[in-house]
Amino acid sequence: MSYPCVITIIELTAAFDSHLRGPSFVMEPPSRLEFSNSSGGWLDCSASGSPQPSIDWLSVDGTSVGDVGGVRRVLRNGTLVLLPFPAAAYRQDIHSTIYRCVASNTVGRVISRDVQVRAGKFIDSFNRTRAAQFPPTDGSTCTQTNGKEHHESYQRTKRLTLTRIDNETQTDGL
């Protein structure tokens, strides 16, 4: 006579388990993020699953990353924010490294591809804005006009900073 109860419990367990689903990425971060120290940058990561997965970020050595005052924030929505910083506050372990996004729930976890992060510095606000919007690829040069027939060229160096190429000032790497 105890069989109906056991069947009911098994049926309930099967019904509950059928609603469980491991995490899968809805938005996986890109493989590269290059940003200006004056603008900062961010990486979005989101996942679906049942129950809803939590999002964490890992550093290159596999340890979980968290907030670093005035430099890096991990938001509840899964976004990793690299805050604007003065050139003197550059940290290779934060600004030139690899991150991975991890989505996990009680069913399992998925890890994103490596995200190579690199920060650079720029000379002034016009150059920062234009270079951030239209950065050249490695080893190439691009020329931009600000509407007054003033041309500026930028070339990316091996240190991934943009160098202004004209008769004025040039930037150095961080």
Please describe what this structure looks like:
- The structure is a single chain.
- The chain is of the alpha+beta class and 174 residues long.
- The chain has a domain at 21-118: Immunoglobulin-like (Sandwich).
- The chain has three helices and 13 strands; from the N terminus they run αβββββββαβββαβββ.
- The chain has helices at residues 3-17, 92-95, 125-133, and strands spanning 21-27, 32-36, 41-43, 46-50, 54-58, 72-74, 80-82, 96-104, 109-111, 115-120, 141-145, 151-156, 162-165.
- The strands form four sheets. Strands 2, 5, 8, 9 and 10 form a five-stranded mixed beta sheet that branches.
- Strand 11 and strand 12 (151-156) form a beta hairpin.
- The radius of gyration is 23 Å and the shape is elongated.
- The relative contact order is 0.17.
- This is Ig-like domain-containing protein.
- InterPro entries: Ig-like_dom, Ig-like_dom_sf, Ig-like_fold.
- Residues 23-112 form the Ig-like domain.
- Residues 134-156 are annotated as: Disordered.
Q: Can you give keywords for this protein?
A:
174 residues; alpha+beta; five-stranded mixed β-sheet; three-stranded antiparallel β-sheet; 16% helix; disordered C terminus
